[in-house]
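The data layer described in this paper is built around a simple, fixed record for each protein. Such a record has a labelled line for the sequence and another for the backbone structure tokens. For reference, a complete record is included directly beneath this paragraph.
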Amino acid sequence: MSTFLKTLTILFFSLMALGLQAEPKPEAAPIAATQTQTASIVVFKTSLGEVQIELFADKAPVSVQNFLRYVDSGFYNGVIFHRVVPGFVVQGGGFDREYQRKNTSPPILNESDNGEKNLRGTLSLARTGDPNSATSQFFINLIDNQQLDGASGRPGYAVFGRVIDGMKVVDAMAEQPQGKHTGVFMNAPNEPIVIESAYRKASEPKTAQPKN
């Protein structure tokens, strides 16, 4: 056999040997935390029924921490849904049964760039024209409201959770008669829709705070 053929033969078997070697196993990727592991569930017991909310602690940590601070302190016990706009949103978290504004903690950073969308059933923080002005008030989207999402150079409304049980109760809020109130409360139902208690699902509800 010529030297050339010997060289080809050696090269061929060398390549075959390389091809048969087991590929090194990649390092195992860390297990991503599941939604169940990271989720906090908050229960609203309202005058129309119960609503359960899953919070997006991984996507909106500042907003969720802020919301839970109000929940855990009993702040939401006895507050009303003061703005109900059928085909748009139901909003609450700022006024008591007597339509008096409640004192809040300082406003927080806007997290509307977290990739979450204002879809039906999601919760977002209400705010003024200042993007970083949200405190205790929130709203639940009755429909997909993409116009409320953030865009390049335009902050939106930060989505921090979604209704996982009780959306029928939320829809019922939008069916309540209105027209009794004017001004700021022109979209308030004639009969107050009250959050009688708000608490984390794993804990017991706190006693309602005295009215302001």
The chain has one domain: 41-200. Strands lie at 40-46, 49-55, 79-80, 83-85, 89-92, 122-125, 138-141, 159-165, 194-200. The longest strand covers residues 40-46.
